[in-house]
Amino acid sequence: MERDTGWGKLSVHPEVLAEVVSEAVEQVAHGFRLVSGERGLRALLRGHESHAVVVEEAEGALHIHLHLAVEFGRKLSEIARVVSQVVDRALWEAVEQHPQEVVVHVVDVYPSYASSRTSSARDSEAAKPQM
Predict the structure, then answer these.
(1) For the chain, which domains are there?
(2) Which is it for the CA torsion 120, 121, 126, 131, positive or negative?
(3) Which of 96, 35, 99, 44 is nearest to 71 (CA)?
(4) How does pLDDT run across 101-117, given as a tens digit for each residue?
(5) What's CA 66's distance to the chain center, in Å?
């Protein structure tokens, strides 16, 4: 990203913007987490690292792609709204530019701690011998 500031030029590499976005999103992550975009065999076959946050610039506009794993049972639209707002605020505070789009890719789901703990307790109770 490059732009005139009135006193000179500001040039920020997309990876720096991705780190700004990543830090901001991780501060509010509850019920979701950032993960690499490609996982498992597909990532191995491509032979390159996939990032949790990808920043693309086209014609001066920023396009942000985030890859999330979401806790089972969470409302996806709510997570996407919160993440989009956080990304917008973080980029504005860092470089005074709003993204043209924020795309949230849900690439995985994981069990909630509460439901897995409840299942474990229920399973251990069922395994006890009856007298």
Answers:
(1) 2-127 (3.30.300)
(2) positive
(3) 35
(4) 999 999 999 998 765 55
(5) 4
